[in-house]
Specification:
The chain is mainly α. The protein has six helices and no strands.
Length: about 200
């Protein structure tokens, strides 16, 4: 196993530890005695886990450690971290006045990723050659979700968490629609019969 893949696995192992600290801090908030050391520990764990995404990619490119396993596990590790953060931050309060992510936002993100996973399976099943170029809405979707997570964890009290989550929700739906359009295009292209040769 390459060093890059080991770092990716390390990111996966950090996720449940991060989730435990999120839960512990949320429980302390609900009890009326928030332990800020738990919140900052959770935040540091999230930052470290997020940073390893760039580190393993750089190592894989710089030392030619690209592998099929790495290409498979890296996006799964990213999704595991994002979905866990969004889910846990919607379950546990992180401040007064129910400072948390709206549960509907967590449901939207999880549903979108499940549908995309099902779509990838269907495309691979029906299309001979699967090729998808990442769309800018998918990248913006990830960035806005990260901003919403940071908004809650850092307690940016300029606006309630609802507003960054609404922005992230727009790009979550938009990127899901683009995935659907691309999957539909590839499946339809696979079922198109080749044109008959023209007689000169």
């Amino acid at each position: 196993m390459t060093l890059a893949s080991k770092i990716t696995l390390g990111r996966i192992f950090l996720v449940p530890v991060f989730a435990v600290y999120v839960a512990l801090y949320g429980i302390s908030v609900a009890a009326g005695q928030p332990d800020e050391s738990l919140r900052w520990t959770a935040l540091v764990l999230f930052i470290v886990a997020s940073a390893t995404d760039g580190v393993d990619g750089w190592i894989a490119r710089h030392w030619n450690q690209k592998s099929k396993f790495g290409a498979f596990i890296d996006p799964l590790a990213d999704k595991f971290l994002l979905i866990t953060a969004i889910l846990m931050l919607s379950i546990f309060p992180w401040g007064d006045h129910d400072w948390r992510m709206p549960p509907w936002f967590a449901a939207l993100v999880i549903t979108r990723d499940l549908l995309i996973g099902a779509g990838i399976f269907l495309v691979k099943k029906h299309a001979r050659n699967v090729h998808y170029e990442p769309h800018w809405t998918g990248k913006v979707c990830t960035v806005t979700q990260m901003i919403a997570i940071g908004w809650v964890m850092l307690k940016v009290e300029v606006l309630p968490p609802l507003y960054p989550c609404l922005v992230a929700a727009v790009f979550t739906l938009w990127s899901a629609f683009n995935y659907y359009q691309e999957a539909r295009r590839q499946i339809r292209a696979n079922f198109k019969s080749p044109e008959p040769d023209r007689i000169p």
